[in-house]
Specification:
123 residues; two-stranded antiparallel ribbon; 14% helix; single chain
């Protein structure tokens, strides 16, 4: 929960959240630390998630991947973009690996790689 608040997921993206799973993101073999930059040559392919539920039992979940840092410099703000929506992913305390590439062709919104941001300079 501390990372969710530090990264301003709450309240910037969601009003509130009550996590019921722990999520780790990997591109290839590299675990993504919250707030770190991921090279676009790596993020062009869907990530693998490790989802560890906090309680027992199987469940089916939906994963929504959002880029919340799309700059809109002419309006001095940031926008969001959906990078993928994956439904009916089965997880349990013993089945924690979710390679999104296996679900991409059946995704509600297939993986869209994050775009590199343009750097604007003020003259």
């Amino acid at each position: 929960m501390q990372r969710i608040e530090q990264m301003h997921v709450v309240p910037d993206l969601l009003d509130q959240v009550d996590p019921t799973v722990s999520v780790e993101v990997k591109f290839g073999r590299n675990k993504v630390q919250p707030g770190s930059f991921v090279d676009s040559r790596v993020s062009q392919f869907p990530a693998t998630l490790t989802i560890q539920p906090y309680d027992a039992g199987e469940r089916y979940i939906t994963v929504v991947v959002v880029d919340s840092d799309i700059p809109v410099p002419e309006e001095d703000r940031f926008d969001t973009r959906c990078l993928g929506v994956f439904a009916n992913l089965k997880v349990s305390p013993t089945q924690t690996s979710v390679p999104l590439r296996f679900y991409n062709r059946n995704a509600i919104v297939p993986w869209t790689p994050p775009a590199a941001q343009l750097v604007y300079s003020i003259p």
